[in-house]
Amino acid sequence: QVQLVESGGGSVPPGGSLTLSCAATGGTFTLLDMGWYRQTPGNRREMVATINTDGRTRYSGAAQGRFTLSRDNAKKMTFLHMTNLQPEDTAVYFCNGGDGFTITTYWGQGTQVNVSV
């Protein structure tokens, strides 16, 4: 059973930066496609960025050019480095892992990011 734990959320002013971390325990990390999603009250969870087992990344339009997702397989972690944050980036950010072999999706508990003056 894979467990995902996020960290690194917090409050920053517009234009600020944050790096979110996701640590995985259990399972085989190198078999997991990983990603970050975010959700605001009353809205659906939306994809921010994903990175597959080969290290290829994909970003939402809002994240492209500002966010960078990486993974460290040895540490079983992913890192979402976010720059030039804006108030519309305020959300709960969730770490996601997908096992293509067992067709199982894992979620962390989420970490809050607040961007305000």
Give a description of the structure.
The chain contains no helices and 11 strands. The strands form 2 sheets. Strands 2, 4, 5, 6, 9, 10 and 11 form a 7-stranded mixed beta sheet that branches. It has a 4-stranded antiparallel beta sheet with strand order 1-3-8-7, with no helix packed on it. 0% of the residues lie in helices and 54% in strands. It starts with a strand and ends with a strand. It has strands at 3-7, 10-12, 18-25, 32-39, 46-51, 57-59, 67-72, 77-82, 91-99, 104-107, 111-115. The radius of gyration is 14 Å and the shape is globular. A hairpin with a 6-residue loop joins strand 4 and strand 5. The protein is mostly beta strands and 117 residues long.
Helical segment count = 0
**Strand percentage:** over 45%
> What is the N-to-C order of secondary-structure elements (H for helix, E for strand)?
EEEEEEEEEEE
Q: Give the total of beta strands.
A: 11
- Cα distance, first to last residue? 40 Å
Poorly predicted runs? none
Summed over residues and divided by their number, the pLDDT gives a mean of 97
Overall SS class? mainly beta
Helicity range: under 10%
Shape: globular
Using only C-alpha atoms, the radius of gyration works out to 14 Å
Largest sheet: 7 strands, mixed
